[in-house]
Amino acid sequence: MILFQLRCARDHQFEAWFKDSATFDRQARKRQVTCPVCGNDKVTKAPMAPHVSTRKAVAPAGAREGGSGDDAPSAVDPAQDAARQVMEALGRVRKHVEENFEHVGDRFAEEARAIHYGEAERRDIYGDATDKEARDLNEEGITVRRIPWPKRDA
């Protein structure tokens, strides 16, 4: 796995993990990588300073001596731990939205406008919108946000 610093066409910077550089290139070419801030799919690698770890992974002391290793410090990569925490938080956001908001599917833009202009009952909704629909809604003063849903465990 490799962590890339990315930048969208609107100059938002963010990080994302990929299997390898070729995987990022393939997904970016197919516009499958989107900015978590604005949803823009024109994403490139941002300049970054690589971090090379020179510390070798060592088995916990207790594990080497036949013990449980519970008292040994953990050798967790801080970047991987941060990514795990972000994915867990996104999972909690997804669960909250799915339990408390109405899913309107690809009618999201239409429903958001109807709610905004008082033509439909005011309620929390979520669904799908194209980049253009999201941009048009925001230009009309209807604030929408894209949330990068984590994939469900199979």
Task: Sum up the structure in keywords.
alpha+beta, 154 residues, 2 domains, two-stranded parallel ribbon, 5 strands, 3-stranded antiparallel beta sheet, globular, 5 helices
The total of beta strands comes to 5
Strand content: 5-15%
Oligomer: single chain
What class, by secondary structure content? alpha+beta
Reported for the largest beta sheet, the result is:
3 strands, antiparallel
Low confidence ranges: 58-73
Round the Cα radius of gyration to an integer and report it. Answer: 21 Å
Number of domains: 2
- Shape category: globular
What strand order characterises the main sheet? 2-1-3
Quickly count the helices. 5
Q: Give the averaged pLDDT, no decimals.
A: 81
Q: What is the helix fraction of residues, given as a range?
A: 25-40%
Elements, N to C (H/E)? EEHEHHEHEH
The first-to-last residue Cα distance is 20 Å
